């Protein structure tokens, strides 16, 4: 079982290349991947997304890539003549307005101005950088998966504990349910005998009690609830469980609501409300499961 919340970091430090990949994931109904990386790695965003999809099936995942290339390599620069021309024209405009101001415009000065001289990146990341990216990403995703699994196992333990609480409440309701009709029949007989001075029609009492017992019968709900609990434990043993448990917990809630509406008994209603409280806590927890 995996949580959708986690963090992982991977680093590559070798041969003058320093590259870091950080991966953070949070809840989301589907798999949503956002990649933030230097422009040199833009052509490899889909590669990063593919690596994430191989490791994560659900959640919002943010991937951050940073790097420093300290290798000794030949470097070339390009000149943005349009920007240089704009600087020169601006200087001429100032000279025409303020002729008394000394003009020291030179090529050396222009080369120091922002955005005129730009290093060329040589066509993007080379094989070494791409290999470093893959290794750091794999390490980060491995750390992310480990954290998500650890958190998922903690959630699993909590969910199974709450399932046991629901099972215990179900047993209490099942033990109480047969007594409800019996007690109703006894109370009905007492009231009728009081009104009729002990001349009540026993067959009428039995008929009324039978109708009441049929209306408040919750055997089907208890049987389905037991089946849902068994299925819950079976699903919890799997890795990807979020959507399945989300659907199943709706069935839990439906059976519990029916028990509350049909029981007409304070003790059963109290147990059912406690059950609803546990079901709601489970529902909140599974929103964070992959």
Give your account of this protein's structure.
Helix content is 61%, strand content 14%. By secondary structure, it is an alpha+beta fold. The protein has three domains: 91 residues, Ribosomal Protein S5, domain 2 (2-Layer Sandwich); 43 residues, no CATH class; 137 residues, no CATH class. The protein has a four-stranded mixed beta sheet. A hairpin with a 2-residue loop joins β1 and β2. The longest helix is centred in the middle third of the chain and has 70 residues. The protein is elongated, with a radius of gyration of 36 Å.
Low-confidence stretches: none
Largest sheet: 4 strands, mixed
Query: What form results from the Cα inertia axes?
Result: elongated
**SSE arrangement, N to C:** EEEHEEHHEHHHHH
- Percent of residues in helices comes to 55-70%
The amount of beta strand, in percent, is 5-15%
Number of helices: 8
> What radius of gyration results from the CA coordinates?
36 Å
User: Looking across the biggest beta sheet, what order are the strands in?
Assistant: 1-2-4-3
Quote the average pLDDT. 84
Task: Tally the structural domains.
Answer: 3
Strands, total number: 6
Distance, first to last CA: 8 Å
| Helix/strand structural class | alpha+beta
